[in-house]
Amino acid sequence: MTDYREINQANWDDRVPAHVASDYYSVRRFLAEPGFISDVVRFDRPRLGDVSGLRGAHLQCHIGTDTISLARLGASMTGLDFSGQAVEAARKLASDAAADASFVQSDVYLAAVALGAGEFDLVYTGVGSLSWLPDIRRWGAVVADLLRPGGRLFIREDHPVLLAAKARDGLLTLERPYFEQPEPNVSMSGATYVGTDAKLAHKVTQWWNHGIGETITALLGAGLRISEFTEHDSIPWPALPGATECIGDGEHRLIDRPQRLPHTYTLQAVKGG
After folding, report:
1. What is the CATH number of domain 4-162+174-235?
2. Domain limits of the chain?
3. Would you write out the chain's pLDDT as a tens digit for each of its 273 residues?
4. Which residues, in sequence order, are bridge partners of residue 165?
5. Partner of 117 for a Cys bridge, out of 112, 194, 197, 205, CB 3.0 to 4.6 A?
């Protein structure tokens, strides 16, 4: 049986050319505007606070636009991703933009080996990351291994209620598991989310949902203290096609009564001294 990592990596390798060329990731603006940062990091910035001088690890960094954004805010960043194509694109962007960001190809569960245990003041993870991992407790242990005592995790992520939902005939229905399951959800699509006509050769992906309680418990069990948990009514990608709309600054929201649905959440946690 093919490992989930091989299946998903083939799909994400396919996405890279379309994502680099897209307006969604704004690669051209990164090169033309030295102060430009991604919409995702701009949304996070009030909660991130001052990251100047911090050594940061960005897990599942994709093509590095958020990693470079954090570097432009003053952090010394290392991005990690399992896709060799994405890491190659991120390195080129960082070089062309003269950003203080380096990139390493590795499975996220091996991040402490690839990047160094106890080396980081900040571990950052952006929206759309955790669902590609089958074991949230193992991920929590990796975060703890990467952080120095007093170091901080910052994550904004798809809300598990959103990932469990589908929009069908004008109704929201809960059709997928909310809690982590042994077997993955399997999706098949030749499209990606950046508004391109490009078709992916590798269409199958495997993914898992992780309940809020499961994620918090994983971090607590790894020795971290939760310092913030905030839920949001928007998300930086067009989730629930046909039922969401862009509301500006790269954020999307349910068209009909968006207060019914938590779209994303921000979680911060600190490693004990």
Report:
1. 3.40.50.150
2. 4-162+174-235
3. 479 999 999 999 999 999 999 999 999 999 999 999 999 999 999 999 999 999 999 999 999 999 999 999 999 999 999 999 999 999 999 999 999 999 999 999 999 999 999 999 999 999 999 999 999 999 999 999 999 999 999 999 999 999 999 998 878 999 999 999 999 999 999 989 998 888 999 999 999 999 999 999 999 999 999 999 999 999 999 999 899 999 999 999 999 999 999 999 999 999 986
4. 174
5. 112
